[in-house]
From TrEMBL:
Subcellular location: Cell inner membrane
InterPro entries: MetI-like, MetI-like_sf
Membrane topology, from the record: Multi-pass membrane protein
Organism: Sulfitobacter porphyrae
UniProt-recorded name of the protein: ABC transporter permease
Transmembrane segments: 57-80, 92-112, 118-137
4Fe-4S keyword on record: no
Keyword Glycoprotein found: no
Segments forming domain ABC transmembrane type-1: 57-149
Alphabetically ordered keywords of this record: Cell inner membrane, Cell membrane, Membrane, Transmembrane, Transmembrane helix, Transport
Length: 149
């Protein structure tokens, strides 16, 4: 019972700020204010009527979908290969443990340096590769630290 209460408190702690921002987004005030003084859809109208926002949303969704697909495929292939080959698993385990040892900001700075050399800064391919790598690192980190119940 205590675990459920703790999980509920944690969930509320994570969700409530988003709900406050969502409520503020329906305000007719020129600046964000909580609680909203009146109801309006002006901010959504401005968002959906501006082509630069729509283009940014489309690019974000495209990068998210491609990165997710690549991360899933690479993760499944890596898991399959590591499960089938103990020698490969023992050789790659130090590399796979880097997310536990190296902070993600260090990985990001190193990735930036590599992307500068490869000419991937500011490209869609660079964003997809960075998000795919980030998904792999975070997924492996979560898997290694998952608590067994």
């Amino acid at each position: 019972m205590a675990v459920q209460a703790y999980a509920t408190v944690c969930l509320l702690f994570l969700i409530l700020p988003s709900l406050v921002v969502l409520a503020m987004s329906f305000s007719s005030d020129p600046f964000l204010a909580f609680p909203p003084t009146s109801f309006s859809l002006q901010w959504y109208e401005e968002f959906f009527s501006d082509s630069s926002w729509i283009n940014a949303l489309g690019k974000s969704l495209m990068i998210a979908l491609v990165s997710t697909a690549l991360a899933c495929v690479l993760g499944v292939l890596a898991a399959y290969g590591l499960d089938r080959s103990p020698t490969l698993a023992s050789g790659l385990m130090p590399v796979l443990m880097t997310p536990v040892i190296v902070p993600i900001i260090v990985v990001a700075v190193a990735l930036y340096g590599g992307f500068v050399n490869w000419g991937l800064i500011g490209t869609d391919a660079g964003l997809v590769l960075a998000h795919t790598l980030g998904g792999q690192l975070r997924g492996h980190y979560r898997q290694r630290h998952a608590r067994r119940i």
